[in-house]
Every structure is written in structure tokens, then in C-alpha cells.
Write a structure and sequence with these properties.
The chain is α+β, with helices and mostly antiparallel strands. It starts with 5 loop residues before the first helix and ends with a helix. The chain is about 35% helix and about 25% strand. Bound molecules: adenosine-5'-triphosphate. Adenosine-5'-triphosphate (ATP) binds next to β10, β13, β16 and α12. Keywords: Aminoacyl-tRNA synthetase, ATP-binding, Cytoplasm, Ligase, Nucleotide-binding, Protein biosynthesis.
Length: about 475
């Protein structure tokens, strides 16, 4: 079991899954780049989600909205006013913390020191802190009264707690005065609004009736206060969202349905069931737009954390946008002859958090012949490389056949030809990359009577089969599914 993210971070870097952004300049806080293996893994997960959420349903269609949106969108959505986190600064080290997370950290510390009563008491205080009004004062009081110190410096010299808006702001064009609120343009902090503002366009053009859904995958940006958890919390990240428009009154049932369908998706992705759970939000902690909300949580090495949110957003967004834009955003139900503003059930999953979940869940260290083998037991469907192909040694006869097989498989799969190092080293490299199959061309296979054969080695149990060359594709496609 992983007890921190450290091993995942180093494997991700060493194998080319994920790098720090601008690495050669020392990196940029909470911004990451995907390397050759990472980009494939991420794309496979994205494609899997897209297929599961659009192709599978007659009544869900996609959009790809721009990152920039009209500034009024964020007034209507409530983000300008309310998309804040409470922050506090350690005056000595000038380090900034999220006040609520500082308290959570203290609770975790108390628990690990087996001071359970004190931990529960502190948790109770945090749970009953004001949700919006008075939150800053409450959090400040908790920090002061419990003498919570800065984790790194140990100092106890705090500023007030202030609300900090998470949206990145910029301006358009050369005419901008540079500082005016009026002409501020934001990088979207969520993809959802691009769907709401296109609700009418999509309904008018795609001939959908309620209920129907709109799906989107795209970048979102949040100026996170605390950003020290690898790709779990980034300032630039990718969301995969689906907003499902339903008739009011059917929303509770649709909310339950989507929560169930989304959990099923995570399991189909190969995530262990014991590591997944749902966490309903208590009513007094709901976001301003929501009538019900639940997280789908995964047990990361940093604890149980949200990977996806399911929300009943009611008619909040469409009503707000109708009011601010002056456009009618309603549905006319011909059969029932009534007009209404649909409710929205939202499923919102972070792509990067899913990548991290997948890596953590697949990571294993196993003892093999007195050695430790590190292996990523990824679902073959999302593995970056599907097949590694190796000539046992650098001899023409073996290399030629290996090249031929590589060229042939390349048509269908992402494959990798590798002839450098011992065969054992090559297997280990592919184990760490999560490659489910390795094909080795050896002398036994090319020098015996009849058709040439190769060995196929399976990542998870390291067993091998000898297979005639003409049957390779058949065997792979069979094993890919199982
Ligand atoms: P958290 O409470 O962890 O900050 P959130 O409740 O603000 O998350 P939502 O606004 O519901 O998150 O966003 C939906 C999904 O987007 C989350 O479940 C998560 O997977 C992803 N997400 C949100 N913020 C980030 C981030 N900073 N980095 C990576 N993924 C994120």
C-alpha cells in the first residue's frame, strides 16, 4: 500500500507520464505537463469517458466551448461574488494556507498521535463553522483558540482569514484600461457554464427533447491557494462534465441514477471497489446552486478524496442566465403543453484526478526472485502502450521478424519496439509503463520446423504463451478484453 504520493511522483517522472511544468526553470507551482506515456493514458481515459457518456446514449450530445466567456457569465453564475476560498498567511514565513485545510491538517495530526477526543472536538468545530457568512471569522477563531501553528515553520503569527477569489483574470485587446473590473475577462474555473450558455443553441439544432444531456471535456483554471498535491490539485486542469436537463420533479430520481451510473464507470475503468465510496454532502454544506450533492471519493495515498462530483443544480443556472442575458431558456413540452425551466443534474469528474487515481490504483511492488518488481496493473484498454516487441538479442533474423510484427501491430495498437538491454530489463521497463503484453522473438521460434512462433508474456502474472505469428492479433484481442 502506498503511504504517500512520492512513489507515484517519481515513477511518473522517470517513465515519462507527468513532468513539472517548465521543469528546467525549476517548475511552476501546481502546473504539470504530460509526457509521452502520460498523454496516451490521459487520452485513453478521456476517450473512454467520451464514449461512455455520449456514444452510449441517444440523448447526450457534445460541445466544445471556448475557455474565454462573456464576463457577465461569471456574474450570473455567482463566481465573481462567491467562488472563494478562505486563506490565511503565516506572517513570519509569508506562506499562505487555506484556513479550512490548515484545521484539517491539525485534525489529522491529532489522530495520528492518537488524540482522538481532541481531534473529534476540532472536527466538530470545523463542521459547525459558518458556511459562507461568518466563515472567515469562525475559522480564524478556531485557529487561534486551538493554537494551530504553521506546519512548516511552527510559527503562531497569523493574519486574518480572508476570502480569496479563485478565478484568473485577464483583459482583452489594446483598448483595455488595464485594471477595470468592467472589462475583466476570466479563464473559466469550470466547464459547466459553457454548456448552460449553449443550452438553447443545442436544443434548437440537435432536436433533443427533455430529458437530454450535453457533455464536454476541457480545461479549467483555478488559482488554488494550496497546491502541493501533485495533479490532485492543479491551477490548470481538465474536467469531463455532463449536464443532464430534466423536468422538475424528476430530478431526485435522475440524481440517484447518475450517481449510480458514474460509480459503475469508475469500476469499469478497473478501479478496485474497496477504494471507492460515495460521500453525500450534508444539507447545510451545499453549494449555493445545489439541492443535493455527493462526491465519488477514491482512497488516495493522501486519504479519501473527491474524484468526481454529482450535483442537483436545480434550475439555478438557466434561471440566472435567462435573467442576465434577457433570453428565454426554457423548454416547451408539447405533449403536456407546458413550459418550464429544466433542472440540471451534473456529473463532473477531473481528468487529471482520474489519471492520478488510475496510477495509484494500478501501482504494485512485488517480490520476484528476491528482487522488487514495480508494475502498473492498468486496465489494458487505457494502458499507454499495449504491446512491447523485443528481439531476444540483436541478430538480423530476430530483428527482422520483430520489426515485421511491430509494423503489422502498429495499425491497430500503440506498440513499442525495444532491443536495448537484457530481456529482463526490457520486461521491467514495460511493467513500470503498464504495458499489458510483451512479444519476444527468439531462436526457438524462428528456427524450428513449420510456422514461426513468438512468446507472449503477460504483465500481471508474468506467464508466457508460445503463439504462431499468424495468431498474434487474435490472441491479443482476446486477452485485451479479459
Ligand atoms: P475540491 O473540493 O477538491 O477543491 P471541488 O469540490 O471544488 O473540489 P468541483 O468544483 O466539484 O470540485 O469540480 C469537479 C471536479 O473537478 C472535481 O471532482 C475534481 O475531480 C476536479 N477538480 C476541481 N478542482 C481541481 C483542481 N484544482 N485540480 C484538479 N482537479 C480539480
Amino acid at each position: 500500500e502506498l503511504d504517500s504520493l512520492d512513489k507515484i511522483v517519481s515513477l511518473a517522472k522517470a517513465r515519462g507520464f507527468i513532468f513539472q511544468s517548465s521543469d528546467i526553470y525549476g517548475g511552476l507551482g501546481a502546473v504539470y505537463d504530460y509526457g509521452p506515456l502520460g498523454v496516451e493514458l490521459k487520452r485513453n481515459i478521456r476517450d473512454n469517458w467520451w464514449k461512455a457518456m455520449t456514444q452510449k446514449y441517444e440523448n447526450i450530445v457534445g460541445v466544445d466551448a471556448a475557455i474565454f466567456m462573456h464576463p457577465d457569465v461569471w456574474k450570473a453564475s455567482g463566481h465573481v461574488e462567491g467562488f472563494n476560498d478562505p486563506m490565511i498567511d503565516d506572517k513570519q514565513s509569508k506562506k499562505r494556507y487555506r484556513a479550512d485545510m490548515l484545521i484539517e491538517g491539525e485534525i489529522a495530526k491529532l489522530r495520528s498521535n492518537e488524540k482522538f477526543e481532541e481531534a473529534d472536538e476540532l472536527q466538530q468545530m470545523l463542521d459547525t463553522a459558518g458556511s459562507r457568512e461568518g466563515l472567515c471569522e469562525d475559522l480564524h477563531k478556531i485557529i487561534m483558540e486551538n493554537e494551530i501553528r504553521a506546519p512548516e515553520s511552527g510559527a503562531f503569527d497569523w493574519t486574518e482569514v480572508r476570502q480569496f477569489n479563485l478565478m484568473f483574470k485577464t483583459q482583452f485587446g489594446a483598448t483595455s484600461s488595464g485594471s477595470g473590473e468592467e472589462d475583466a475577462v476570466y479563464l473559466r474555473p469550470e466547464t459547466a457554464q459553457g454548456i448552460f450558455v449553449n443550452f438553447k443553441n443545442v436544443m434548437d439544432t440537435s432536436r433533443q427533447q427533455i430529458p437530454f444531456g450535453i457533455a464536454q471535456v476541457g480545461k479549467a483554471f483555478r488559482n488554488e491557494v494550496v497546491a502541493r498535491q501533485f495533479v490532485f490539485r492543479m491551477r490548470e486542469f481538465e474536467q469531463m462534465e455532463m449536464q443532464y436537463f430534466v423536468e422538475p420533479g424528476t430530478d431526485a430520481e435522475q440524481y440517484d441514477r447518475w450517481l449510480e451510473e458514474r460509480i459503475a464507470w469508475h469500476k469499469e475503468l478497473g478501479i478496485r471497489e474497496s477504494k471507492l465510496r460515495t460521500h453525500p454532502h450534508p444539507e447545510d454544506k451545499l453549494a449555493h446552486y445545489a439541492a443535493a450533492a455527493a462526491d465519488i471519493q477514491y482512497e488516495y495515498p493522501i486519504g479519501w478524496q473527491e474524484v468526481e462530483g454529482i450535483h442537483n443544480r436545480t434550475d439555478f443556472d438557466l434561471t440566472q442566465h435567462a435573467e442576465h442575458s434577457g433570453k428565454k431558456l426554457e423548454f416547451y413540452d408539447q405533449q403536456q403543453q407546458k413550459r418550464y425551466t429544466p433542472y440540471v443534474i451534473e456529473t463532473s469528474v477531473g481528468l487529471d484526478r482520474t489519471v492520478l487515481m488510475v496510477l495509484c490504483d494500478a501501482y504494485r511492488e512485488e517480490e520476484v526472485d528476491g528482487d522488487t518488481r514495480t508494475v502498473l496493473k492498468l486496465n489494458p484498454e487505457i494502458a499507454p502502450t499495449k504491446v512491447g516487441i523485443f528481439p531476444l538479442i540483436k541478430k538480423d533474423k530476430l530483428q527482422d521478424l520483430a520489426h515485421k510484427i511491430t509494423a503489422d501491430l502498429r495499425e491497430d495498437y500503440n506498440v513499442l519496439y525495444d532491443e536495448s538491454g537484457s530481456i529482463g530489463k526490457r520486461y521491467r521497463r514495460q511493467d513500470e509503463a503498464g504495458t499489458p503484453f510483451c512479444i519476444t522473438v527468439d531462436f526457438d521460434g524462428v528456427e524450428s520446423e513449420g510456422e514461426d512462433t513468438v512468446t507472449i508474456r503477460y504483465r500481471d502474472d508474468m506467464t508466457q504463451d508460445r503463439v504462431p505469428v499468424s495468431r498474434i492479433k487474435e490472441v491479443l484481442s482476446e486477452k485485451m478484453k479479459s
